[in-house]
Write a structure and sequence with these properties.
five-stranded antiparallel β-sheet, 17 strands, about 25% strand
Amino acid sequence: MTVTEIWERIERELEAQFPHVFASLNPGATEDEIVAVERVLGMNFLDDFRESLRRHNGQNDEITLIGRGALLPVNEILTQWRSVQESYQDWGYASDHKCVSDPGVRSAWWHSRWIPFTMDCVGDYDCFDYAPATGGRFGQVIEYWHDMEKRPVRASDFKECLSALAESLEQKNIIWMDRSGPEERWLWRTFGKLNTWELYDLMRLRQEVFVVEQNCVYLDADGYDRNARHLLGRDGEGRPVACLRLFAAGVKYPEYTSDACIGRVCTAASVRRTGLGRELMLRGIAEAERLWPGCGIRLSAQVYLLKFYESLGFVVTSEPYDEDGIPHVEMARPGKIADTVQ
C-alpha cells in the first residue's frame, strides 16, 4: 500500500472521528519546496516521506499526530534541524556526551544526520536516522529527547508510523487528549511493559471497584500480576474505566493445562450498562484465542454476574463458594482442546 493510500485511510477516519485534527493538516508541499530544503540539508528525504509531504506539508497546529508531536512543514524541518545543529556546535555538547540508545542507534546526544519531522511543545522530536549504528536501519524513526539520555527506536520507517495510525483509527481504538495526541483506548500490556501511569490507573481502578465500592478488605496485589497480560480500557477523556488480566494455561491454576484464565474483570460505575463490560470480555476472549488457539478459558465469577458470563459462552463448573465475603462460582468456556484434571 502506498503512502498516499494510507493517508486516504487516515483522512477518512480523522474527518469522521476527530475533525479538529483533520483540519490541522496542511495542503501538500511543492516539489520545489522539498528540493530547496534537501539542498540545504545535504540529504534527500526518502521516497515515502517525500510522497507524504506532497500530500500534507505538515500541520498548522500543535496537535500531536504521530509520535512526539505535530508533523513539521518542510521549511520548519530545516529550521529545527539548523536550530539543534547550531546549538550543539556552539556548546560542543553533542560530540562528547553519550546517551542510552536502543540497539542500532548511535549513543550520541545529537547527530547531524538526524532529521526531525515531528516536534512537541518542549523541543522533543521524532527524527529520521540517516546515520544508524551497526544493526540499525537507514531511515529508521528514533525519538530525540532534549533533556533525557535516551534515544529509542519508534519504528523501522515512516510508513510503519503512518500504517499504525491508520489501523488504530479504523479500529476505533484512539482517543485524543487535548493537544497531547492520540492514545490507545484499549491497550494490552505485559506487566513489565506497563508504564508508571498505566500501572497506577490499573491498580486504582481495581481498588475503587473491588476494595472501596464492594467494601471488601483484601490484598489486590496478589503476586500474580507479573505473570499476566493486562487489558486497560479508557473513556473518551482518557480515564481508566475497564480492565482485566489474562493468564496462559497452568499459570494461575496449575491443574488446568489447556485452559487460559481471565481475572480481575472490572468496569467503573460510570460506564456500566453501556455495553463496555461485554466489549472488555470479548477483547479478553479474542486475545486468549489469538495467543492460544483452541484453548478453553476459566474464571471465578461473582454469583450475581452468572447470566452475563453465560451469555459469553461460560458454564458453571463448581458449587458456590465464599471468596473474601462475596459468593463466587468457577466457570469455564470450552475450547477445542479438552482439559482433563486428574
